[in-house]
Specification:
The complex is a heterodimer. Chain A is α+β, with helices and mostly antiparallel strands. In chain A, about 40% of the residues lie in helices and about 10% in strands. The termini of chain A are far apart. The model of chain A is unreliable at about 15-30 (pLDDT under 50). Chain B is globular. The mean pLDDT of chain B is about 95. Classes of the chains: A alpha+beta, B alpha/beta. The interface between A and B is large, with 71 and 64 residues.
Chain lengths: ~325, ~290
């Protein structure tokens, strides 16, 4: 079966010939990577072939200058993560027939990562963030003797199974929308890993960890877009682990941040009126004593007011509110 | 067609133009909106995160209310859609969880058996109302307008809860609709990305940069306006656009329409009837192209 592959090419020497399509560069304003040239190749492969089969075929039989990184070819090692049609995928797990759009498949290195050559991208940001979360167990005493296993009850490990499937491919980070604009953000892979240790009953540093992850660049800098859940090839669902960390941090008392104030203001509003009070949510989340923060939101509040878009000053309660209050009381927990 | 209409907090708060325009197009579409006036806020994911059991019960109550009306829920907000879909998925597939909810809400006169479907207006247009009906209601073609779709995260991800694996075409409805009303859909990367709203209170500058960069990308591709099925996206893309301009150090000035406003224009309503004169970013530049004034 014939497939057409369009490869985003880049080399640091800048010696590639003009591409067949003549297209150049990434148009997205947030893209800070150097321009690529797109080169088109035709390959003849079986219908079940994957993107990586095509790239290897190109490198072996058509163009030995093509740089592509791969190892296991069976979605275990994570080496061949790249952008396929504008999203993070493992090339070895992506069938060409599923990824042919308008007669072709486009592959390129992810624009939010440093490019080394062609489809090979630099994993430095990935590992730097990974190391920043102390990705190992700080064992709680008493530690069993050298010939003994430090065992945890099965039930305590069940929550961690999802994260343990991570193969460090970088798919989540390369499509992370927060990371694309905020290099301080620890990122989905690192925070998922952080959860894996923070919720391990054998770890002694859970409090320090939660304090660290509550700082700027930590759990509250995630924009909740679900890209990482969508793109992870192993079902790790990093966002869900980040949300568990947020809850752990709040429960542990790390509440002096906009994230907790926002959640509390939200909960209070739904409990007291059944619906969200947009008028008080922003100032309460910002913190009443955060004068600079409050001032920053003033112009947009004024713009909204001028357009007739400010919520009613008197916040309406929904009919049958008692039902909602009863539910809050009955379930208990935070917001009660 | 009768639907259990779930307007969401924002359409009754900071985006009244969404509520008004939805009411306007309901007639031509043959939609009988039975509003769930006693249904609580979904918690927008914030309550689900800090108190999952509470969010299960609140959303379970909404689903049970629709069930008692024997109607499917219709949302007009990607975020409401995402949160309700998420909890509905859990409650439909996990009997223990559903029973727990029923134990909490049981004496409130409601019980959820798991039958309710939750559908955004955008999905209903294609799957329940039908293109024939929409075509028949179009009185004004919006020819000449270049429109960039902006979906909002929670109507796209995670696919599992939203039924997108069974219906991948849901990812193309906005583009199809833009073409249907005679305008030209703009293809750009930002259409499926995050507007930045969930971060607005935590990291204001980055949130504005996120939204601003997507609008600028659409503008560079020639978009006259963006259309969104999510009022929270609208709050960030329209309400915060002047501030986003400052962060991006570039003039943006691209109007943002709600989905029902776009349809309403095509159905012949005036911009005033759709409250297109109540946006932070003036809509005149786009309306001029189809010879309309605010």
């Amino acid at each position: 079966m014939k497939f057409t592959i369009e490869v985003g090419r880049y080399n640091p020497e800048g010696t590639y010939a003009e591409s067949a399509s003549g297209e150049q560069g990434f148009p997205a304003p947030w893209d800070k990577s150097p321009p690529r040239r797109y080169q088109t190749y035709a390959v003849d492969l079986p219908e079940h072939a994957v993107v990586l089969d095509a790239l290897i075929a190109i490198r072996e039989y058509q163009d030995e200058s093509l740089a592509v990184r791969c190892a296991c070819r069976s979605a275990i090692c994570g080496s061949c993560a790249m952008w396929v049609n504008g999203h993070a995928h493992l090339a070895c797990k992506s069938r060409l027939s599923d990824f042919t759009k308008n007669g072709k498949t486009r592959v390129e290195s992810p624009p939010s990562m440093p490019v080394v050559r062609d489809l090979v991208w630099g994993m430095e940001p990935f590992w730097q963030k990974h190391h920043a979360v102390t990705p190992w167990l700080e064992p709680k005493q008493p530690v069993p003797g050298p010939r003994e296993e430090y065992r945890a009850p099965n039930a305590a490990m069940e929550n961690l199974i999802q994260e343990v499937s991570c193969i460090n491919c970088g798919c989540c980070l390369m499509d992370c929308e927060s990371f694309a604009i905020n290099r301080e953000f620890l990122g989905p892979h690192a925070l998922a890993k952080a959860y894996r240790y923070a919720d391990d009953p054998r770890d002694a540093e859970v409090n320090d960890r939660l304090g660290e992850y509550s700082k700027p660049g930590g759990v509250w800098d995630c924009t909740h877009c679900y890209e990482c859940v969508q793109q992870c090839p192993k079902g790790v669902a990093p966002l869900e682990q980040i949300l568990k960390l947020r809850k752990m941090a709040v429960d542990a008392g790390f509440t002096n941040n906009a994230g907790t104030r926002h959640a509390d203001a939200f909960g209070e509003s739904v409990r007291e009126s059944g619906r969200l009070n947009e008028l008080t949510l922003m100032p309460k989340s910002t913190g009443f004593f955060n004068i600079v923060g409050q001032l920053k939101t003033m112009p947009s509040a004024f713009n909204m007011m001028r357009a007739g878009k400010l919520p009613p000053i008197i916040h309406h309660k929904i009919p049958g509110l008692q039902r909602i209050k009863t539910i809050f009381q009955r379930v208990g927990g935070r917001f009660k | 067609m009768k639907v259990a209409f779930y307007p969401g907090c924002v359409s009754k708060g900071a985006c009244p133009e969404l509520y008004v325009s939805t009411q306007a197009i309901a007639g031509p579409l043959g939609l009988q909106l039975e509003e769930l006036t006693e249904a609580p806020c979904t918690g927008a994911g914030v309550l689900s995160e800090q108190n999952p059991e509470l969010a299960d019960s609140l959303n379970g109550l909404t689903l049970a209310m629709a069930e008692s009306k024997n109607a499917d829920v219709m949302t007009i907000c990607s975020t409401c859609q995402g949160v309700l879909s998420n909890h509905n998925y859990q409650l439909q597939n996990d009997e223990k969880r559903r029973e727990k909810v029923n134990a909490t809400i049981g004496d409130q006169g409601y019980r959820y058996s798991g039958k309710t479907k939750v559908k955004h207006l955008l999905w209903m247009l294609f799957e329940d109302i039908g293109l024939e009906k929409i075509r028949g209601a179009i009185k004004r073609k919006l020819t000449g307008l270049k429109i960039a779709p902006f979906y909002g995260c929670y109507i796209l991800r995670p696919e599992e809860y939203l039924g997108l694996r069974e219906r991948p075409e849901r990812k193309t409805y906005l583009e199809q609709l833009i073409a249907l009303v005679g305008a030209e859909p703009v293809e750009y990367r930002g259409s499926t990305k995050c507007c930045g709203f969930p971060m607005l209170t935590f990291n204001r500058e980055k949130s504005l940069e996120m939204g601003g960069s997507h609008i600028l990308e659409a503008k560079e591709k020639g978009a006259d306006l963006l259309v969104t099925p999510c009022p929270l996206c609208h709050l960030n893309l329209d309400g915060q656009q002047p501030d986003a301009s400052k962060v991006m150090r570039k003039e943006i000035g691209v109007p943002i329409f709600h989905l029902p406003q776009l349809l309403g224009l095509a159905f012949g309503f005036s911009p005033q009837e759709l409250r297109l004169n109540h946006h932070v970013v003036p809509t005149a530049s786009a309306l001029e192209k189809v010879e309309l004034k605010v």
